[in-house]
Design a protein that fits this description.
The chain is an alpha/beta fold. The protein has helices at about 30-35, 60-75, 85-95, 105-120, and strands spanning about 5-10, 15-25, 45-55, 80. The radius of gyration is 14 Å and the shape is globular.
Length: about 130
């Protein structure tokens, strides 16, 4: 399984970019959480996640991004998601459309569903 690679690139003023590649899942999300923690409390108002290299995202990875969104929203900030690959984009679309906690009985069930969706997109079925 590919690991997570991340790079933080300072933007202009209170704008920061995080480039992610590989997999953002239950074993790699702590790496993102640790790297972005200072950005959530240093006056950053816009945090861009560039996901062009991200191949897979699980519910744990989604929680990390949503946590950043919540933290920045508390002081009128925003999270932007840029250039997600088709499978990852589909996951974001599905989660936005339907509250996750209303559908899945367990974390394992949700992760299985997200994996299946991303596999279908990769095969051209969605």
């Amino acid at each position: 399984m590919p690991r997570l690679s991340l790079r933080i690139e300072p933007g202009d003023g209170p704008y920061q970019r995080i480039f992610l590649s590989g997999w953002l899942d239950g074993s790699t999300h702590p790496q993102l959480d640790e790297a972005m923690a200072p950005l959530l409390h240093d006056g950053t108002h816009i945090l861009e996640f560039n996901l062009a290299g991200l191949e897979y995202i699980s519910s744990a990875g989604l929680r990390s991004i949503f946590r950043a969104r919540k933290a920045l929203h508390a002081h009128a900030g925003r999270v932007l998601v840029m250039q997600p690959q088709p499978g990852v984009r589909k996951v974001f679309e599905l989660v936005k459309a339907v509250p996750v906690e209303d559908i899945f009985a367990s974390q394992a069930e949700l992760d299985g569903y997200l994996t299946a969706i991303q596999d279908k997109v990769a095969r051209g079925e969605l």
